[in-house]
Amino acid sequence: MTALLDRCSAAFGRTITRIAVAGLVVGAAAFALALLAGRSGTAMGALDASFLFFAGLSAGGVALGAAVRVAHGRWAGPVLPIADASVGFFGPALAVLAVLLLGGRSFIPAAAGAGHFGALVLRQIALTAVLFVAGRTFVARARAPGADEARGRASGVAYLLCYAVVLSVWAGDLVMGLSASPPATVIPAYYFLGAFLSGLAWVALVASLRGTSGPDLRHDLGKLLFAFIVVWTYLLWALFLPTWYANVPEESEQLLRRWHGGYRPMTTFVLVAVFAWPFWLLFSERFKRRRATLAVGAATILLGLLAERFLLVLPSLQPAAALGSLAVFAGVATGVAGLFLLSVGARLASIEAGDAAA
Question: Which contiguous run of DSSP H or E holds residue 356?
Answer without folding.
Answer: helix 323-357
